[in-house]
Amino acid sequence: MASLVMDSSTWLDEVEIAYTTPRLIRGDNRGVITLAKIMKDYGKVKHIDICHHYLHELVQSESIIFEQITSADNLANLFTKLLAWDHHHCFLAVLNIY
Predict the structure, then answer these.
(1) What sections of the chain are H helices per DSSP?
(2) Helix or strand or coil: residue 33?
């Protein structure tokens, strides 16, 4: 996801469209967010793929910001999980797809 955000930033620069920085990524995975912000105990995480170290570098350079949201508020769940009817339609309304 972070690489897509950075790619879109590069494209927006090329076509000279203004956008705000740092870019905001919302997620409900507390472990990933914590690891991206604070990469301590390197011995325990050295097996993690190098692309995840890239996330840490982007957070440190303040290019992106991760924000913790609850799983119930994660709009991506609309596309990735089986939701109850009312929860599904609530997300559709938030996205103005109704």
Answers:
(1) 2-14, 30-37, 42-45, 50-60, 77-80, 85-94
(2) helix
CA dist., res. 35 & res. 27, Å (int)? 13
Rounded CA separation 77/79 (Å): 5
Q: What are the pLDDT tens digits along the chain (98 aa)?
A: 667 777 787 888 888 888 777 888 888 888 878 877 877 665 666 667 666 678 888 888 888 888 898 888 888 888 888 989 998 999 999 889 87
Q: What are the two backbone dihedrals, phi and then psi, of residue 12, each rounded to the nearest 5 degrees?
A: -65, -35
Residue identified by tokens 């469209």 is 17
Query: What number of residues does the chain have?
Result: 98
Comparing C-alpha atoms, which of 56, 74, 73 is closest to residue 65?
Answer: 56
How many CA atoms lie within 13 Å of 1's alpha carbon, on the beta-carbon side? 12
pTM: predicted TM-score of the whole model, two decimal places: 0.64
